[in-house]
Amino acid sequence: MNYKTDLHCIECGASYPMNEIIYRCSKCDGLLEVRHDLDALKAKSASEWKEIFESRFRTYRHPYSSGVWGKKEWVLPGIKDEHIVSLGEGVTPLVPMPKLAKDTGVGQVLLKQCGISHTGSFKDLGMTVLVSHVVSLISEGKGIRAVACASTGDTSAALAAYASAASVPTIVFLPSGKISHAQLMQPLSSGALVLSLDTDFDGCMKVVREITSDNSIYLANSMNPLRIEGQKSISIEIVQQMGWEVPDWVIIPGGNLGNVSALGAGFHMLKETGIIDRMPRICLAQTENANPMYLSFRSDYKDYQPVQAKKTQASAIQIGDPVSYPRAVRTLQKFNGIVEQASEDDLANAAGRADREGMFADPHTGVALSALIKLAERGEMNKSDRVVVISTAHGLKFSEFKTGYNSGKLDGVSSMYKNEPVELTPDVKRIKDVIEERFH
Question: What domains are defined for the chain?
Answer without folding.
Answer: 94-117+228-406 (3.40.50.1100)
